[in-house]
Holliday junction branch migration complex subunit RuvA (Campylobacter insulaenigrae), 183 residues
Amino acid sequence: MIVALEGEVAKKNPTYIVLKTASGVSYGVYVSLFCSNQINQNGKIELLITQIIKEDSHKLYGFLDDSEQRMFELLIKINGIGATTAMAVCSSLSVDAFYMALKNADESAFKKVPGIGAKGAKRIITELSDAKMNISNCDLTHSQALAALISLGFKQENILKALSSCQSTETGELVKEALKKLA
């Protein structure tokens, strides 16, 4: 499984880049518009990769930021939300705007994303707010830490207990502190 790629940007389209590695192998990687805006043609970059293998395709999705990658991975777990729609969300909403839309149950923010209608917006809010995020009880930092720990495979109820006794105010430190309590 490919988890990261480093190389030179050989070709750049708005949501797709070709990354040529030092070994001479070139990879096609789908990226969000936010990510694409930070990438320079012929510049050297390292991307975090989510690899999706299906019967008829093998696709790579690249991220400069691990929080955007976690957001993408949460979205593709929702029934009816595929990688293309998840990447459209990543292109339309920043990570902070995404978590705020979930926290406020703002369907209109999700309906602005191409490919998401009223049903899709409700599904995202319902599944991520209730089942996985429990955002109503957390601020943005706790929400991001909760998402990170869920993606590591911990159970939500255990994570919430650990986070409730943590003192850190930064997401990274909060995750580290919670990991110590979950161990």
